[in-house]
Design a protein that fits this description.
Blueprint lengths: L5 E5 L5 E6 L5 E5 L5 E7 L5 E3 L20 E2 L5 E2 L3 E4 L2 E4 L8 E2 L12 E5 L2 E8 L10 E9 L4 E10 L3 E2 L3 E2 L16 E4 L1 E7 L5 E6 L11 E2 H5 L4 H6 L3 E6 L11 E7 L5 E7 L3 E5 L22 E5 L14 E2 L5 E11 L2
Antiparallel strand pairs: 1-2, 2-3, 3-4, 4-5, 6-16, 7-10, 8-9, 11-12, 12-13, 13-14, 14-27, 15-26, 17-20, 17-22, 18-19, 18-21, 21-24, 22-23, 23-27, 24-25
Amino acid sequence: MIQLPVSSTKTATGEILYTLRNASDMRVVISNRGGTLISWHAPDRYGRIADVLLGYPDTKGYVTNLPFFGGLIGRWANRIADGHFMLDGADFLVDRNNGTNHLHGGDAGFHLALWDVHVDNNGLRLRHTSKDGEAGFPGNLQVEVRYRLDEEGELTIDYQAITDAPTPVNLTSHAYFNLNGGCSDISDHMLSIDADYFLKVDQRLIPTERAEVAGSTFDFRQPSLIGPRLASSDAQLGLAGGFDHCYCLHWNEGMMHGALREVAQVYDPGSGRALTVATTETGLQFYSGNFLDGVVGRGAQPYAVHDGFCLEAQAFPDQINGPDAEAVILRPGQIYRQTTVYRLSVRD
């Protein structure tokens, strides 16, 4: 494999920023704080470079990072209803930082931690230990995440974790994309998701049932403009202020468990940039930036609603409280593994 150049700089606030580069003028900037994807500079169809990620004007914002810009999320991505779950007959209460719900690891989630970073020939290797009782979760959890950028514009994120006591684990990356580089919102983006079902939610955005996408605003099995869907009167969009729903990704019976497969594509006709998402996970959270309004971002300008989108590969929200809870429990002697690949390319 081609050895990609990696450089690093230390910021005024003490974080270290690592830059991965390839021969196509792509640059991915990653912070040791939260393992955060700070920037992804990529060319459009005319070769013009722009940052396709949303983020703060400087590193100070990432100390609190309320929108979770670009962070590695854990120990639990998405929501846990009432911050409560049962595990092996014991009750656990975890941080409630989203009304009565637990969200994205709680008040001191992985996206705020200072990760140990090691540069290797293929990118970065990040390590973090979440101690027993942190945010209310049981067990000491050791996490390793690898970032690699290749010459094809693929950013691969490999996750591994081990524990010394049974604990729920659900990790993801919370990158916000805008393929036009922030020239406008995401209305003109075309999205496709390989899913026949999605999870309906209640007012707390906790899943209530699995529903077919067919005939609904949530049907992205064929490429569709996001803007007209956001204007829909669908009651589910009203609850979330847009899309903030998990899609149950298509799974062929012939596939091996944990197989990496392409699950979503986004295309911006204006710039020609295209994003492809592949993952080993069962769920994909599509979030349309519903709570961005007023958050000060690039160039010290406030973002507006729907200025970015997230496609977060993960287990299902609140799965720890559902019938398939055992699938998200990591036990001593087991290894949690997950791979998600974001690929940026250009169409003529």
